[in-house]
Write a structure and sequence with these properties.
- This is Transcription factor.
- The chain is mainly alpha-helical.
- It is about 65% helix and about 0% strand.
- The chain is built from 27 helices and no strands.
- α19 packs antiparallel against α20.
- The radius of gyration is 30 Å and the shape is flat.
- The protein starts with a helix and ends in a 10-residue tail after the last helix.
Length: about 550
C-alpha cells in the first residue's frame, strides 16, 4: 500500500518565509521580510494568498518544502531533531558591545545613509557658544602653559586622552593672539586639563608662586572650573548634534581617570558616561574594514581605565572583556615605539586579568585549578617581555611605565590566587604552594609601590598603589590565619606601606579608618593585642573587617575568608 494512503499528511501553515526557515532564523513576516530585503532575495511564504513571488520556480520550491515537512513530521513524531540536541549542548556566547551594535544595526537599515554621513564627520569638533565669564577662569599664560605641559608630560603619557599637537597649537595661538583666537573647543579642552592638574597633582613651582601672590587656592579654582564645565557639557543633553561631541568624550575620560585615581567607594559613573558617549562619536571596537578609524585610540584608553577599575578595585566592568580582547593598540596610534610597546603589554596584562576574573566567577574549583598553570605561564611570558623592553630605561616616563606594568602584573598574580582564601583548606590540594605564591605576589606588589613612590607621585598613581598595598597586606594576614608561615620581613613591609599611605591626601573619615586597618594588620602579624587609636566610631573597635569593607565598599566583590 502506498505511503500516501496510510499516512495522514497534516499541511501546517508555516509562519516564516522559506528563506528564514531554511536558515533557522526568526522572520518578521513582512512582505518581503526584513532579512530577505537586506539580502536582496525573493521572499516566499507557504501561504497561498500571501506568496510574494508567484513564479513557477517559487511555487515548485514551496510545494517541495511543504511535502518534505509533512512526511518528516509524520515519520519522526517522537524523534528529537539532532539540531535541537546540538543547540542544547552549546553554551551561550559572551555578549558585548559589539554584539549589541550588530543587533541594533539590523533595525536601522533605513537610516544607513544618514549614519554614514554622520560617521564620516564624527571627528569634526563642534563650536558652541560659551558663557562670557569662562575666560576669567584661566590663570596667566605662563601658569596655564606650565600646568598643561605637566599633564602632557605625565598623565597623558600613560593615558592618552588629548592630542599633544592639537593642545600645543592652542597654546601657541593664545601666546600670539590671546584667548579669543582659539575655538570654543580649545577653551574647553585647556580648562579641562588645567582643572585636572590643579585637583590631582602637585602644581609646578611657577604656578604655586603665582597662586600665592594673588592669594588663590588651587583647589578652589579647580572646583570652579569643574562646576563650570559640568554646567556647559551637561547642558548639551537636549541639543541635537552636540551630545556626542568629541570634546565632551575627552572631558568624561578625564573625570573617569580622576575617579580611578582618587575614588574609593562607589562606581565610576564618569566611565559609564564615556562609554555611552563613545558609541555616538567614535567606533567602539576596531575593525579593519572601517575606512575612518579616528578616535579609536580614545576608546582604547576608555577600555584600559575600565579594566583597571576591575582589576585594582574588583568592580564590575562596564565594557565586556571580549570587546577589550579584540581591541589591540596600533602603531599609528602613538608617536613613538616605546609608547606603543607599553600599551601593547598593558593590553595583554589587562586582558589576562579580565580572563582570570571571568574564570573565577564561571568555573568550578576543580576547573579553575586546571587553568592555573595556563594563566601562570601567560603572565610569566608577559613579565619577560616587560623586563626585556623596559628594564634599565632612563627617562622618567618609561621608568614609571615599567613600575606601573610590574605593579599591575603582581596585582593580577595576586588576583589569580586570592580566591582560594574562600575555600576550606582541607579541600585544597597543594595548599602551601598556593598560599606561598599568593604571599609572594602581595609582598612584591607592596615593594614596588613603596620603592617607586616618587615616580607614582609624579604620575598621579600613588593612591592606586597605596590602596592596592593595603589590600595585599590584609590578604597576607589572612594567609597567616590559614596556617601559612610568612617571611620574617613582613612587618617591615607593613611599616613601609603605612608610611606610603601617610603621604596620600585623605578625604572624609578614611584617614582614621586606614589607621585602624594598619593596626589590625600589625596585631595579626605580630600576635599581640591591638592598641587602636582613640576614635569616636565604636564599630571600628568591634569589627576590623567592617572597617575595611566600609572604606572600600566591596562587600560583594572582595574575597573574604569564611
Amino acid at each position: 500500500m502506498p505511503a500516501s494512503s496510510t499516512l495522514k499528511i497534516r499541511r501546517r501553515t508555516p509562519k516564516s518565509c522559506l528563506n528564514c526557515r531554511r536558515r533557522k532564523l526568526k522572520c518578521d513576516r513582512q512582505h518581503p521580510c526584513s532579512r530577505c530585503k537586506e539580502r536582496s532575495e525573493r521572499c516566499v511564504y507557504a501561504e497561498g494568498s500571501e506568496i510574494e513571488d508567484g513564479s513557477p520556480e517559487a511555487n515548485d520550491q514551496l510545494q517541495r518544502t511543504v511535502t518534505r515537512e509533512a512526511v518528516n513530521s509524520a515519520t519522526n513524531v517522537n524523534k528529537k531533531p539532532p539540531e535541537v540536541f546540538e543547540i542544547t549542548q552549546k553554551k551561550f556566547e559572551f555578549y558585548g558591545w559589539k554584539t549589541f551594535l550588530e543587533l541594533i544595526g539590523r533595525k536601522k537599515q533605513d537610516h544607513k545613509t544618514a549614519n554614514q554621513i554622520y560617521l564620516m564627520g564624527r571627528n569634526i569638533r563642534l563650536s558652541v557658544a560659551l558663557p562670557e565669564d569662562i575666560l576669567s577662569l584661566f590663570p596667566p599664560y605662563f601658569v596655564s602653559k606650565a600646568l598643561v605641559q605637566r599633564f602632557l608630560d605625565t598623565t597623558n603619557e600613560l593615558f592618552p586622552i588629548f592630542y599633544r599637537s592639537e593642545i600645543e597649537n592652542f597654546l601657541m595661538s593664545i601666546q600670539a593672539f590671546g584667548l579669543d583666537s582659539i575655538s570654543s573647543d580649545g577653551i574647553l579642552l585647556l580648562l579641562c586639563i588645567i582643572g585636572h592638574v590643579l585637583e590631582v597633582t602637585d602644581p609646578p613651582l611657577e604656578a604655586k608662586e603665582d597662586f600665592a601672590s594673588v592669594d588663590c587656592n588651587p583647589v578652589d579654582l579647580s572646583d570652579l572650573i569643574r562646576k563650570k564645565l559640568d554646567e556647559i557639557f551637561f547642558s548639551f543633553d537636549n541639543c541635537q548634534g552636540s551630545v556626542g561631541n568629541l570634546t565632551r568624550v575627552q572631558y568624561c575620560i578625564v573625570q573617569a581617570l580622576y575617579n580611578l585615581q582618587k575614588q574609593i567607594k562607589g562606581f565610576n559613573v564618569a566611565l559609564c558616561h564615556c562609554i555611552n558617549l563613545s558609541t555616538r562619536v567614535s567606533p567602539i571596537y576596531q575593525l579593519d574594514t572601517v575606512a575612518n578609524e579616528v578616535n579609536t585610540d580614545l576608546w582604547l584608553t576608555i577600555c584600559e581605565i575600565d579594566a583597571m577599575e576591575h582589576i585594582f578595585k574588583s568592580k564590575n566592568s562596564w565594557v565586556q572583556r571580549d570587546v577589550f580582547g579584540r581591541l589591540q593598540p596600533r602603531r599609528d596610534f602613538f608617536s613613538d615605539e616605546k609608547t606603543f610597546q607599553y600599551h601593547s603589554l598593558l593590553g595583554k596584562l589587562l586582558n589576562c586579568g579580565l580572563d582570570i576574573q571571568k574564570a573565577v566567577h564561571t568555573l568550578t574549583i576543580q576547573e579553575y585549578l586546571q587553568k592555573l598553570d595556563e594563566f601562570d605561564v601567560n603572565l610569566s611570558l608577559i613579565l619577560t617581555s616587560i623586563e626585556s623592553l623596559f628594564f634599565g630605561v632612563n627617562d622618567t616616563a618609561n621608568t614609571c611605565r615599567y613600575d606601573f606594568l610590574r605593579l599591575i602584573f603582581w596585582t593580577i598574580r595576586k588576583n589569580l590566587y586570592q580566591c582560594f582564601l574562600t575555600v576550606e583548606h582541607d579541600n585544597l590540594p597543594e595548599l602551601n604552594q598556593i598560599f606561598e605564591k599568593l604571599t609572594i605576589a602581595c609582598l612584591q606588589a607592596c615593594r614596588i609601590a613603596t620603592g617607586s613612590s616618587e615616580s607614582f607621585i609624579r604620575f598621579d598613581l600613588l593612591r592606586i598603589a597605596s590602596l592596592e598595598s593595603i589590600t595585599c597586606l590584609l590578604i597576607i594576614s589572612f594567609c597567616q590565619e590559614r596556617g601559612f608561615k610568612l617571611p620574617d620581613n613582613c612587618i617591615e613591609v607593613v611599616y613601609d606601606v603605612k608610611h606610603l599611605n601617610s603621604i596620600v591626601d585623605k578625604e572624609d573619615h578614611t584617614s582614621e579608618g586606614f589607621e585602624f586597618v594598619f593596626d589590625f594588620i600589625l596585631s595579626t602579624l605580630e600576635s599581640y593585642p591591638s592598641k587602636p587609636p582613640d576614635m569616636e566610631s565604636e564599630h571600628f573597635l568591634e569589627d576590623p573587617l567592617r572597617v575595611f569593607s566600609d572604606l572600600f565598599s566591596i562587600q560583594s566583590h572582595f574575597f573574604f575568608p569564611h
